[in-house]
Design brief:
Rossmann fold; 52% helix; Helicase, Ruva Protein, domain 3
């Protein structure tokens, strides 16, 4: 035991004080003593012990009142209560006031050793949790609060308000904005942080597999089910389950999820009885759920169950002042991870990053900084951005390229126009529509980095319709 670990013994019986002092000294503790509560409280600022033993019956202010004042002054110091009576009411009140343990006199030496050991372990755990919460807040500040965005201040405020509750939270935002970071912050800052955190991507599996993944199955439920399998909800019992891309869940599964939210129970595939679970649900989506409800793609009753507290994460382009702080954060992180020493980016590169529109949001920026650190140069990333920007430039910018496009469009719409030839207005209108459609599809595909599923959502058409239009317009990623 370290000599720096100290015990303060508070007892009005000189014999007990001497006995406890001897026991604690044999265990390697430094020992201070006080004969009453007033003396102990007066010396607390000078003597800052690691643990306190406190007699429940003291002259002047009694043991319980002393305990209350000690916890007000130094809540982090564990207090082991000692009493020759051990009345149930006294024990309950002592634990309510924050006592770490309660021993009846006379006690065995092993009991005191165990009480000290448990109290110090719990204190170390509490300090670790405080440190972890500080790091999580730092991560939230770094990844989400960079810059002076009122929207991001609101995100942080909501996280801190609801983290310690069991309330269901819906996190919304474009791909790459940091929805999982928010979910993990809610978990780490909450009262379930010592329990499991289980993540499920609802878009990663077909409906049939997702159901067994979430809710498990019984032996013989289907061909190949050779033994019972627990679902993610059971693994998340007493903890938190994060349902990413919740909007991709099939209607049948939505009904089963609704049952879990309403009743806290579900049945495994092939099961005859219900399974009860207590899991906090955090869901995330990059889709417009209200639109999905209107189209009948998402259950309205589930939407209202999930939408108890909503956290909207704005895209990076709407908080562009966060880029320098995010760059600094990712440089530090990947320098440490890959044992590199890229201290800062050039002014030219920073200006390019500030001017970029960031369709992939924070995730895209992180990947770019990661490549810069690993490769040791900025040119490849600058070239990548330069190649992307012309495809997604705003039509409002105008310029020679736009003028050239307009000329080409005129040729396509009516080659004989300048020579007085006849024009088919209906055909021209149809062709103009096709050209405009192709440009819009091409631009949205570029903005989504050719993520066809996300592009279809932005264009408000089905995935199959997008594939058909891409084929019709000769669009492919490698063109």
């Amino acid at each position: 035991m370290s000599e720096r670990t100290t015990v303060l013994v508070i007892d009005d019986d000189p014999g007990i004080r001497e006995y406890l002092e001897t026991l604690a000294a044999r265990q390697g503790y430094g020992v201070y003593t006080a004969e009453d509560g007033e003396t102990a409280l007066a010396e607390l600022d000078q003597v800052r012990p690691d643990i306190i033993t406190l007699d429940a019956v003291l002259p002047g202010i009694d043991g319980l009142e002393t305990l209350r004042r000690l916890k007000q002054r130094a809540p982090e110091i564990p207090v082991v209560m000692l009493s020759g009576h051990g009345q149930a009411r006294t024990i309950v009140e002592a634990m309510r006031l924050g006592a770490a343990d309660f021993l009846r006199k006379p006690f065995e030496v092993e009991e005191l050793e165990l009480a000290f050991s448990r109290a110090l372990e719990n204190r170390a755990l509490a300090e670790e949790v405080r440190s972890l919460r500080g790091r999580v807040r730092s991560d939230v500040d770094g990844l989400l609060m960079g810059g002076d965005s009122p929207k991001m201040r609101e995100v942080k405020e909501i996280i801190e308000q609801v983290a310690d509750t069991d309330i269901t939270v819906l996190v919304r935002g474009e791909s790459g904005t940091g929805k999982e970071v928010v979910a993990r912050a809610l978990f780490q800052l909450g009262n379930r942080r010592s329990r499991p955190f289980v993540k499920v991507n609802c878009a990663a599996l077909p409906s049939e597999l997702l159901e067994s993944e979430l809710f498990g199955f019984e032996k013989g439920a289907f061909t190949g089910a050779q033994k019972r399998k627990l679902g993610k909800f059971e693994y998340a019992n007493q903890g938190t389950i994060f349902l990413d891309e919740i909007s991709e869940m099939a209607p049948g599964l939505q009904a089963k999820l609704l049952q879990v939210l309403q009743d806290g129970e579900f049945s495994r595939l092939g099961g005859e009885s219900d399974v009860r679970v207590d899991a906090r649900i955090i869901a995330a989506t990059n889709r417009n759920l209200e639109e999905a409800v209107r189209k009948g793609e998402f259950r309205e009753d589930l939407y209202y169950r999930l939408n108890v507290v909503t956290i909207h994460i704005p895209p990076l382009r709407e908080r562009i002042d966060a880029v320098p702080l995010l760059v600094e954060h990712f440089l530090r992180m990947y320098n440490e991870q890959y044992n590199k020493n890229v201290e800062k980016l050039s002014d030219e590169t920073m200006q390019v990053l500030m001017d970029y529109h960031w369709p992939g949001n924070v995730r895209e920026l992180e990947n770019m900084i990661k490549r810069m650190v690993v490769l040791g140069n900025e040119s490849t990333v600058l070239q990548e951005i330069a190649q992307r920007e012309p495809m997604v430039a705003s039509p409002a910018k105008g310029g020679a390229a736009d003028a050239a496009d307009d000329d080409l469009d005129l040729v396509a719409l009516g080659a004989d126009f300048e020579h007085g030839g006849e024009l088919d207005l209906k055909a021209i209108s149809k062709r103009a529509s096709q050209i405009a459609e192709k440009k819009v599809i091409e631009r949205v595909l570029a903005q989504t980095r050719w993520n066809r599923k996300e592009a279809a959502e932005r264009l408000q058409i089905s995935y199959k319709a997008l594939l058909y239009k891409m084929k019709e317009n000769g669009l492919s990623e490698g063109r």
